[in-house]
Amino acid sequence: MLKISHVSKTFNPGTVTEKQALRDLNLHLEPEDFVTIIGGNGAGKSTMLNMIAGVYPIDCGTIYLDGVNISRQPEYRRASLLGRVFQDPMMGTAAGMQIEENMALAHRRGRRRGLKWGVTKQEKEIFHEELKRLGLGLEERMTAKVGLLSGGQRQALTLLMATLQKPKLLLLDEHTAALDPRTAKKVLSLTEEMVTEARLTALMVTHNMKDALRLGNRLIMMHDGQIIYDVRGEEKKKLKVEDLLKKFEDASGGEFANDRMMLSD
How do the domains of the chain map onto residue ranges? Predict the structure, then answer.
């Protein structure tokens, strides 16, 4: 479903702020893989997601999505193939628009747009049923402005919008990091439910090692722009946080220096 081959990316080359974010990165995902991604600050986790989404051009290498070479496609061309939820709950929705209007934009993604006005009755019925899944009562507030919702409500809505039209690949970039623990737990539960039910292929960056171990069928660890550990299936299920710390030290030659990740519950 996703094949990244020999991808590298350097920001600000030839300057004092030069940073090699990805170094000959290689990753191959099978359909329905749910991969959690961990790593210290500056490991290249978010950069990898941005390269897949086309936010920045890659320096070299190739990226194939469902057999199509998207390596040089602009971001807007890839948008219909991808679902994405960001760390900031404010980024995935339009605050000045109603809930149903936001959902209509997501529902019509990748389709030809006409001059037809507003949200159709059929769409409203679909959105009402989909919003019920969130368990947040938003199905009774479909005409409310999204800007009036809490961060957790907006993030849950963004997640629903990202999966409304089944994407080829779902990108989750620390999408619960800005939420309180209770809300984060709810959004993670919805994430697991939606990915499983829709049989999505997903990449999830997380700062929480326990979540990385509990969720998904595969885990990768990144350091200095490369994947230094890749584990899946039964082997992944047997791992503990202490095992991941030891793997990091063995592979990188240093201690894991990310307190937020180490101390997460």
Answer: 2-14+23-81+167-262
